[in-house]
Design goal:
Helix content is 67%, strand content 4%. The protein is mostly helical. The protein has two domains: 2-64 and 173-204, no CATH class; 66-168 and 219-301, no CATH class. Strands 1-3-2 form a three-stranded mixed beta sheet, sandwiched between helices. It is globular. Residues 2-39, 56-62 and 181-194 have low confidence and may be disordered.
Length: 302
Amino acid sequence: MKIKICVIITVFIAFSCAVFSCQTIAAVADFGAQVAGAAGVVDQNVASAISQSARALGTAAEEITPEQEYYIGRAVAANILRTYRLWNGNAALTAYLNHICAAITINSPRPDIFNGYKVAILDSVEINAFATSGGHIFITRGLISAAKTEDALAGVIAHEVAHIQLMHSIKAIKNSRITQALLITGTSAAGAATGMNVTQLTEVFNETIGEIVQTLVTNGYSQTQEFEADTAALALMASAGYNPTGLIEMLRALSSVQVSSSGFGKTHPSPAQRITNAERTVRNYRATDTSIRQTRFAAATR
């Protein structure tokens, strides 16, 4: 009977978080558990475990600091580099990409993050790009080869910057932490645990990093998040003086090449879907002359 009541409390917390603030629900669940314990509905050990987990749930909803963003993102980047190898074959090309990134970010709503934005090239013919909350942007050699103009490359970088500034990976982290808190609530209610110790926190962190890597490298963001990043990228490009149609140009180039099912095609909506979405917004921006940038693009990518 006591375990059933604990399960009901756990389900109540999970359901309520979908409707109300997690911190508010955590406080209510904490109070409810204490009342249940005092009334003898559940024993004091179980009530204490539920209270601890409820407080953990409230903590999960707290704002993540820029420093935390960076260190979480750095751990994600390290995991990505276990799958892909950095390419240092052309330092000038890497510097060129970082100059494009700097032009985009300095004119953006969030020009500064904890340790800055950095672009690196992955030694892979796969067509793909990734970004972590720490400001690490990875672009494969295959994707760079598919670009025909600087504005097209700027579209790729702006899209990844948008993921960072929209905090897409951080939202996934928060969801993961809330899920973990709920799971611990369930096991605590069964008497298997009494709260998070250092080992559990380490495990949760590692699982969270693994989940984000899985999202970036294997599953991809949701279609809605990809469309959000494209829409934001158009605004970022326009603010930096790039022609926003460069993103659509890049998407058209990608639609004409064979995209690997384990790369871009696996982690992004189809280029056709993204083009349709972007075309609804791009008409709001003024086109700029791209010819002045073509000479340096040709020199950097030759």
